């Protein structure tokens, strides 16, 4: 079931009652978003287990045969993430700030936690006007894998750039 706070910047999980989900949201939405809109990797770098990280790109395909090991190291992901942040920040949004849109477009569709392992399905959906008359559109999702290491949830990998069915279907 998708989870989104009424205020998209506010964590929808109670820090005491849903401690793990709260921590996952802080890493995968709050710190990632704040880092991304500042194009500052250092703000989210500690959310990754660099010694065991890998990122798989689905390249917009449902068919796993088209997926690739796009990020065999955290450094390769960081470099592409920084380039994506710069492109996003150069997008001429007409009616919303980059930060507000980033928070508004993201939600957890599903979270599974078993002991010290977690899988989080995060969706991205937006259709916003641009100042040049175009539209900023995205409908994608990522599946993150996290391990609890040293009492902290760390991202060990993901399958990203997956297509997403329309929310109306």
SSE topology sketch:
Layout: H1 19-38, E1 54-57, E2 68-71, H2 74-89, H3 98-105, E3 106-114, E4 117-129, E5 135-149, E6 152-163
Parallel strand pairs: 1-6
Antiparallel strand pairs: 1-2, 3-4, 4-5, 5-6
Can you summarize this structure?
The chain is an alpha+beta fold and 169 residues long. The protein has helices spanning 19-38, 74-89, 98-105; strands at residues 54-57, 68-71, 106-114, 117-129, 135-149, 152-163.
List keywords for this structure.
169 residues, Nuclear Transport Factor 2, Chain: A, 6-stranded mixed β-sheet
Please describe what this structure looks like:
By secondary structure, the chain is α+β, with helices and mostly antiparallel strands. Strands 2-1-6-5-4-3 form a 6-stranded mixed sheet. It has a single domain, classed as Nuclear Transport Factor 2, Chain: A, CATH 3.10.450. Helix 1 runs antiparallel to helix 3 (98-105). It has helices at residues 19-38, 74-89, 98-105; strands at 54-57, 68-71, 106-114, 117-129, 135-149, 152-163. It is globular and about 50 Å long. The model has no long low-confidence stretch (mean pLDDT 94).
């Amino acid at each position: 079931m998708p989870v989104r706070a009424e205020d998209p910047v506010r964590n929808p999980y109670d820090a005491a009652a849903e401690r793990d989900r709260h921590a996952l949201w802080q890493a995968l939405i709050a710190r990632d978003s704040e880092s991304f809109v500042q194009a500052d990797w250092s703000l989210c770098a500690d959310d990754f287990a660099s010694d065991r990280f890998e990122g798989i790109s689905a390249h917009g395909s449902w068919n796993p045969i088209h997926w690739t090991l796009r990020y065999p190291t955290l450094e390769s992901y960081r470099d592409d993430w920084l380039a994506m942040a710069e492109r996003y920040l150069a997008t001429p949004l007409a009616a919303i700030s980059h930060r507000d849109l980033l928070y508004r477009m993201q939600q957890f569709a599903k979270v599974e936690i078993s002991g010290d392992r977690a899988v989080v399905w995060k969706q991205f959906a937006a259709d916003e006007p641009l100042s040049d008359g175009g539209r900023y559109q995205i409908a994608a999702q990522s599946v993150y894998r996290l391990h609890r290491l040293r009492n902290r949830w760390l991202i060990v990998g993901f399958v990203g750039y997956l297509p997403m069915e329309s929310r109306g279907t």
